[in-house]
Design a protein that fits this description.
alpha+beta, globular
Length: about 130
């Protein structure tokens, strides 16, 4: 299991805003996704949230950078997005940009996390 210290070490290389927003968003994810597995991918510079080791078991990914923070969604192309948060042009994944702390607390973002969890359950017959 990954500790808070591991997460803080991973995020400490980013500016204060990215660090703070990532920590808040992490807590929201952990509360929304029961018993989710949190993994740090150091080479890819991201933190993933899944229920196993297969891509089909991934729900979302925190993607910090010096420019900001993104919350990526596996199979994001299939998610309903009434808040029009999802961006990207890939065939499978999409992401929501977190530009300010208010974005982290938005109902639209929380809905996307819940929809991604529901999509995971459908994909994996849970």
């Amino acid at each position: 299991m990954i500790s808070d210290k591991d997460i803080k070490n991973c995020l400490s290389q980013y500016n204060e805003s990215v660090f703070k927003n990532a920590m808040i968003l992490r807590e929201i994810i952990l509360r929304t996704l029961p018993e989710v597995i949190e993994q740090i991918d150091i080479p890819a510079k991201m933190i993933s949230y899944s229920y196993g080791n297969k891509y089909s078991e991934m729900v979302c990914t925190l993607i910090p950078s010096q420019k900001g923070l993104k919350l990526g969604f596996y199979k994001g192309t299939d998610l309903p997005d009434p808040g029009k948060l999802l961006k990207g042009s890939g065939k499978i994944s999409r992401y929501a940009e977190i530009k300010k702390t208010e974005d982290v607390y938005s109902d639209a973002l929380k809905t996307l996390i819940k929809e991604a969890f529901n999509a995971y359950k459908i994909r994996n017959n849970k």
